[in-house]
Design goal:
homodimer; Phosphoribosyl-aminoimidazole Synthetase, Chain A, domain 2; alpha+beta; about 30% helix; 60s Ribosomal Protein L30, Chain: A
Chain lengths: ~300, ~300
């Protein structure tokens, strides 16, 4: 009744000081830090939609399945604690696929000081489905919500955008370390991670905050991959359009007041390279591009199929 | 960018006093009770394996997806707090299917005082996949583990067993209320829920506790459905064999010392009807049936495809 995969899990999954009871019982028991609130998020990834088994390295698929959830914790400024992993494996080669997926997840979990505390492993005649639930913690009231941006706050982003399909969508580093450091050193009014496209996720943050935003398009950090994609496809979609609408950059958008931003970059000039100011929140709803002294409507674009609830 | 389903979630999901931030942000924020530890479990259910879309009522499928997780919380004596629901919907009719699944889950969540705090809704060209993560809480040290049974403890079970395929597998009540009440009134050394078969799950509890168990087979509560199934199939599998090996009863197995059991039924005679003593744990490993004054080996049987980690 003991089976190979279960034994492999027990031997392979590292222990974690906050996981009092891990894989192998009906549920995991986890101790949060004193006074902390629980932050919980879940994401389901499917073969043929979010990755392709046979084309992509299963270690990278495992990394991605965990990292998309870590990115959600980062967007809340939550410290990762534990993950639960559900797999629906194709019958053919399912066990070795499961091990490879875990071998992709385990180093990523370790990098962000997170346990893999349990899960549910199944097989069927269909394609691979992975669901990861990530559990983190925040001190009460210190989470970054989408709804906290204020008019005249500046729009900051980490990293660069566009062309993630060339590889970053599988290998990206979730901005957990950046978020936890920033949460201690910068007053952030609101945040979201860019899973479905810079303009689309910014529009979601705007809507949650009851605001709009005006962007200086020339300031948007366009990834080299966006330029490569635009060059190679020759389909008339510019690198900037890729940066605005490609999904899966997994960078953060932050809302910060101008005075706080000035103080912060004065004290921490090294962050000038890591946070880019791309625009400003405003009372007028919608997204706009700043063209000289007037605003032009900007249609939010991105990946709309995944409907986070 | 606001879509119908997301709006429907926001309008339909009830609020909960412990959910500080629910569906609609990057993650949920949940406040556990003072000093409590988090209990977390996850289960993935697939069309064609755990239910059949088109054959089974989607409200019942929704109930089942949540209730299998509630059963895991019950097996830990954990109080339910919140659930996260991931759906992978077939493109055809996906939105109305999603609503029906939620309409099955919402009353069940309410019945056990649990929030649906968020999730991830996707569509694809494959069959329906549902993953639910259930989050509960226990006071430190008070969870029921599989590993705590002691030699000479009695084996108790709730309810009756076998034939769940005739309907109970979709409509069963998870034993949450029973577990929470028992945790306050009875010293339970170990517990497990019967998801894969009475004998198989008892064998798992035995293995986790480093023990075996000897059963009085004539005392095992055989469900009426097990008799119906045996009658209708005429395949030579007796009602008792169904009770021992059919999966998805979602009853509890409990280990209780003889003295504590005697005290408990003395003080709470009404529980004589609700808890059945079926045998005894022992140092000798394996499952055994008590036949007169000797023991006969009993092969654990059940559903082995779902490999809980």
């Amino acid at each position: 009744m003991e089976n190979d995969l279960l034994r492999w899990f027990r031997e392979t999954l590292p222990s974690h000081r906050q996981v009092l009871l891990g894989a192998g019982d009906d549920a995991a028991v986890i101790k949060l830090s004193e006074g902390a609130n629980l932050v919980a998020t879940t994401d389901m990834l499917m073969d043929g939609v979010d990755f392709r088994v046979g084309e992509h390295d299963p270690l990278q698929i495992g990394h991605k399945a965990l990292a998309v959830n870590l990115s959600d914790l980062a967007a809340m400024a939550a410290r990762p604690v534990a993950a639960l992993v559900s797999l629906c494996l194709p019958r053919q080669g399912g066990e070795s696929l499961a091990k490879a997926l875990y071998q992709g997840m385990i180093p990523t979990a370790a990098q962000y000081d997170m346990a893999i505390a349990g899960g549910d492993t199944n097989s069927w005649d269909g394609p691979l489905v992975i669901n990861v639930t990530a559990l983190g913690e925040v001190q009460p009231g210190s989470e970054w919500r989408r709804s906290g941006a204020r008019a005249d706050d500046l729009v900051f982003v980490t990293g660069s955008f566009g062309g993630s399909i060339l590889g970053k969508h599988l290998t990206f580093p979730p901005r957990v370390h950046e978020a936890l450091w920033l949460a201690e050193h910068l007053e952030v009014h609101a945040a979201i991670d860019v899973s479905d496209g810079l303009s689309l996720d910014l529009a979601r943050l705007c809507e949650a905050s009851g605001l709009g935003a005006a962007l200086q398009l020339e300031k948007i950090p366009v990834a080299e991959a966006a330029m490569l994609l635009s060059d190679s496809r020759q389909d008339g979609i510019s690198p900037l359009e890729h940066a605005l609408s490609d999904g899966e950059d997994f960078e953060l958008i932050l809302a910060v007041s101008p005075a706080e931003a000035a103080r912060f970059v004065g004290e921490h000039p090294e962050w000038k390279q890591r946070l880019t100011e791309i625009g400003r929140f405003q009372e007028t709803a919608g997204l706009w591009s700043i063209e000289g002294d007037h605003l032009k409507p900007l249609q939010p674009r991105g990946w709309e199929h995944r409907l986070d609830s």
